[in-house]
Structures are given as structure tokens and as C-alpha cells.
Sequence to fold (531 residues):
Amino acid sequence: MSFYVTTPIYYVNGEPHLGHAYSTMAADVLARHHRQRGEDVFFLTGTDEHGEPVELAAAREGISPRELADRNAPKFERMAARVEATNDFFIRTSDPRHMDRVSEVIQRVYDNGHVYEGVYEGWYCPRCADFKTERELGPGNTCPIHEIALEREREENWFFRLSAFEDDLKRLYAERPEFVVPEHRRNEALSFIAHGLQDVSLSRPNLNWGLRLPWDPEQRMYVWFDALLNYYTALSFAREGEDLSERFWPSCFHVLAKDILKFHAVIWPALLLAAGLEPPRGMVIHGYLLMGERKMSKSLGDVIDPGEVIDRFGADALRFYCLREVSFGQDGSVSAAGFETRYETELANDWGNLASRTLAMLARYRGGVVPEAAPDPELASGDDGLEGLEVRVCELIDRAELSGALEAIWSRVRRLNRYVEERSPWVLAKQEGESAGEGDGGGAPGEAGREAQQPGRPRTRSGAGDQLDVVLYNLAEGVRTLALLLVAFMPASSERLLDALGEDSREIAGFGSRGGGAMTERIPPLFPKLD
Ligand code: MSP
Fold:
């Protein structure tokens, strides 16, 4: 089974910020998770380098658009690496291989009769590179996203016959209820379609930076057509000498925020149909990271600088915080104070501490070897039981409910912490040591080590010793299953923990699927406490 996941390609007119990193981190969670499920995964991110937003920004700086793109694209590429994104390719739309492929596809759209010449008259936001319909305008003919006054434009354009695809789009949405998730975004897209689709400009006469139309080189392609097609073109050249299109198209899943819903949920599938290609498998629309009440953006200044957070706390903590703090799909505020609280309570205390204690007790009471025992029914069952958790998490991730998946995992982290308190393994160890001492002079509890597991150990130890085996096995097994589910979210720390638990596989596994016997080792805290 193949799974192809993408992020939006980011405009190179600005610097990367946490908002961009958010989409990239979310897409990476999906990529990693599907790899763990043994699927054939391809993950694409990149930069959008043509069009008016870039042209204007370059002009403001007195440099060419290409200079601006060459300066900023590597910053986005580095951002992806810093958040530990495992993208298989980084596309830049100024790549001639992309441009050639776009020309081919758009020529097909033209040949198929979906393009005509006309005059555009209406409102245009140069920052969105978007022709706004009357319904999309803010008060006083402003852009609702950028809050700037819009100019009325009149220009000769080539048009894409979007209106001709109204019925096809309605059918697509009816046949595939999960084409756009979450549902309220799907409804938004549907209502846009239901209001009647207007044809959209495919080209613009007054741009200097962009692809020329193959059949009319005087006109440059409207940047959104060039940009959207990246998802398709990249497959043809991402691998030297190999065309991945057959392998990964249309099993493509897009991650994006609601600002660009219309382009992805309406124009994009219509464009593909016009070119005789299949629409993608689906898309998840997430909300905005806010600072206070405002959408995080470079112009507002960064309160949380992803680079600084990563330097101090690591990419895992940033990934966890963003996907946990803001319910995926909704808008939500992020703040440095909120980050520190979650880091301290959930990463350092709940999870890091659980991992450290488990490894420490295995070392102290069983010489680091996970004892042989069965899953404790009490821990396995119930609302926050560990049994079946992996199925539940896969379902949630399949619905792109990333925060929901983290919450499901976290309720088990808390459950395991309660289990430690309830069972007090240190008391059991003491009893084990005492009864061993009363019996035939077994070793001190601290050094019980492997002997505790040897066959033929003194029967007097069976009560507390067996109970301790059960608790330690269940802790090790619980932590292992959770760490496997967390690999996608927090790869570095989860890998370290799994190595420490003697687990070589990264395949998602159910609670109780591994027996005892693994050799574990203690490691430094996964999330050291803040000073
Ligand atoms: N170049 C277009 C996308 C073309 S895709 C074929 C574009 N670029 S952008 O640089 O403006 O990036 C927009 C995307 O960045 C959003 O859709 C979202 O994925 C991400 N985000 C930017 N700021 C964000 C927040 N404050 N919060 C969440 N996501 C944010 O649009």
C-alpha cells in the first residue's frame, strides 16, 4: 500500500516560522506513522517561488525574485530538517524539471478545451495571490486574511473553466465523504461549490516572474496553478532516473491550513480532472497557531522561535507541544509559558519519569531483564486500558485526528503512572527480599538480578516476587507499546527509549505482543527538568 503525503509549498517571500513548521511536523507524523505500518511512503515538502508575492517582496528589497528565492528556499529546507521531518524530497518550483512538467500538464488542460481567453474584472489580493469573490471580501473591500485594502483589477487573462466541474466536484464529495477532513472544512468547501463556481484566471499579463503559457508566451501562469501542480510534478523527477507517478499518484494526502482550502479542495481536483488525472486521495485542513488572538506570522513577530525551542529542548518537545496544545483542525494559541508548563508536567514528569522509573526498577530488581509474565487484565482493560490502543491510535491517525491520538496515548501514560503507585513495586521488592531472607538466604533485593528469574528459585519468594515480575513486565510492555506509538510524534526520544528497552523493531505492536526476556538499560532522562 502506498501513502504519499505533502505539505503546502511555502512562499519564499518570507522566512520560515512556527506556523510553517506546524504543517511540516504534522505531515511528518503521518509519514513516519505510515512507514511504521509497513506502507510505501513518500513525503514531499518544498517552496513556492513564482508569482506576485515573491516578485513584490524581491522588488521591496531591490533584488531579483531568483535571488530572493535562492536565499530563502534553503532556510525552509533547513527548517524541515530541524523539526526532524523525513521528507523524501524538497521541491522548488523554480526547478526547470517542475516547470517543464507543469507546461505539459497545462497544455493538456488547454487541449482538452478547458481554457479560454477573457477579461478579468474584480478584486485581487497580491499577498494571497488570490482573486476574491464578493462573498470572500472583508469589510470595505479588504482581504480578510491580510487586512489590506484591495485594488480592483481589470486585465486580459486566460481562464480555466472551473464552472464546468461543478457537477464532477459535487459527485466527488458525495462519493468520498472523507475527501476533506475535518467535516466542517468539508462543508465549507461544499458550500463554496454549491454557491456556484466562477471560472478562474489561469494566467496574468503583468507578471515578470513565472511560467509562460505554452500557447501564449506573453502571459505568465497564475502562480496557484504552477504551485498546486508541484504535488504531481515532483513524482516525475524526485528520484533520479525513476518516475514515481504510477507508484504514488493518486494515493496522495495533503496537509494544509484553512487559508488555502479553496485552492486545494475546489480548484485542485478540478484542474486534475481537466488534465485527465485523478484527484488526490484526500486532505486534512488544520487550523492556525495563534499568538494571543492573532494568526502567527512573520510580520507579527515570533513569540516562539522554533529554532530556539529546538536548541534548548529538542525537536521532539516542539512537535509534541504544538500537536498536543492545539487540537489538530482547530485554531489555538501557543506561548512560551504554555510550552514550559506542558514540557514540565507531561514530558518531564508524566512520560520521562515513567520511562526512567521503569528502566531503573528493571535494573535494580531484575538485573535489567524484563521478567516473563502475562499482561495484567486490570491494566489492559477499561476506558484507558492498554489493550487495543494501537488499533485506536491508527484509526485516529487515519482520520487525521493527531491531537486525539496523542490524548489516547497520554491517558495510558497516566494510567501506567497510576499503576506504579497502586502496585508500589518497591514494597513488593522489599517483601520479596524479606521472604527470600527468611527462606533460604536469597540475595539482597538490590542484587536480586537474574537469579530472581532462575528456575528453581526458593518457593517462599513466589508471592511478592511473582507479583513484582507481573508489575515490571507490565510496565516494560506498557512503556514499549506507548513508545512505539510515539515514534511518529517524538522520534528521537522514542527511538532512544525503545533501544533502552531492547526493542529493535519499530512496527506498531499491541500490548502483550512481546514476552519477557529483553535486556534493558538505564539511560539519562528523556526530558530533563527545566532549571
Ligand atoms: N505558497 C502557498 C501554498 C501553495 S501550496 C500548493 C502558501 N504559502 S505560505 O507560505 O503562505 O504557507 C501557507 C501555509 O503555511 C498554511 O496553509 C499552513 O499550512 C502554514 N501556516 C502558515 N502560518 C500558519 C499558522 N500561523 N498556523 C498554522 N499554519 C500556518 O500559501
Residues 439-461 have pLDDT under 50 and may be disordered.
